[in-house]
Amino acid sequence: MPNKPDTTKLWTFLFAVYIIWGSTYLGMKIATEVVPPFLLSAFRFLVAGTIMVCIGWRSEKQLPTRKQFLSAAFVGLMLIGIGNSTTALAVHYMPSGLVALIVAAIPVWFIGLDWAFFSKQRPTLMTVTGILIGLAGLFLLFNPFSADHSRDYPLWPLVVLAAGMACWTLGSLSVPRLSMPAPMTSAGLQMLTGAVFCFLVSSVTEDDAWSTLHHLSTRTISAYLYLVFMGSLVGFTSYSWLTRNAPPRLLSTYAYVNPVVALFLGWAIGHESLSARTLTACAIVIGGVILMTLGKRKVQDNKK
């Protein structure tokens, strides 16, 4: 019987994922004040991916096969190249806390795309109820038909973010069905693939992006270093350890906590507005996500 993980270590890594991943939204917001989103993502994952590959090859001592390399490249394109970079694009134009709240609803994509293309497993009534509640919360928050003219950000990034979340989901659902390299090496290769893709997109869509590097401030560099070392390296390492040692029910709580952390930091540090409607929508969306998670877990328990 495997040894029970140390409780102190368990909660240390869990709180790291809570705080670090919840704070990366504000980090991206600050960093993209100067550097365009795709160029920022390219440099972020170029450095983080290089470090991760070096650590992986040194500790795992396994070179990937051609098939494993291509699998990691595909997943990196979907998760990092498209999924994460579109989040950076969204926070550039929208409040970081609201973007985090939208991303919190990603179980909708997992459930829908898994049902349509992978497991063909029909969602439970509880899951469908959670989806409807979550979507109602998002509609309350971003209702385009509202007479409220206080919104000071565009809504078009929502479409881009939705596409990015769909790609993130497809990439994540593909991982168990692909031959992947060892975990650390795989993560590094995914980051490097995402970095290459972001460099290409930046060269086409972000005019004079490289000239912004001449205007870097201490604030921008600090946010960038935080994203690389805390968000990409410490955050991933903590999450990776938790996937192997934490109960799934406990690990899943990060999806509920991250948007709360992001909303609070966006308000406290980023001076983003936090209205009663935003708080109400946050509670509704998180409630829907909890129901989705519980409904999915109920199906898994019944299959055991």
What does it look like?
The chain has 304 residues and is mostly helical. The protein has one domain (11-302). Helices cover 76% and strands 0% of the residues. It contains 12 helices and no strands. The radius of gyration is 19 Å and the shape is globular. It starts with 6 loop residues before the first helix and ends with a helix. It is a multi-pass membrane protein. This is EamA family transporter.
Summed up:
76% of the residues lie in helices and 0% in strands.
Unreliable spans: none
Question: What is the count of distinct domains?
Answer: 1
Alpha-beta classification: mainly alpha
User: Radius of gyration from the CA trace?
Assistant: 19 Å
Q: Would you tell me the overall average pLDDT?
A: 88
The SSE order reads HHHHHHHHHHHH
Strand content: under 5%
Compute the separation of the termini in Å: 19 Å
| Major sheet size, sense and barrel closure | none
Total of DSSP H or I helical runs spanning 4+ residues:
12
Helix content: over 70%
**Morphology:** globular
- Tally of DSSP β-strands: 0
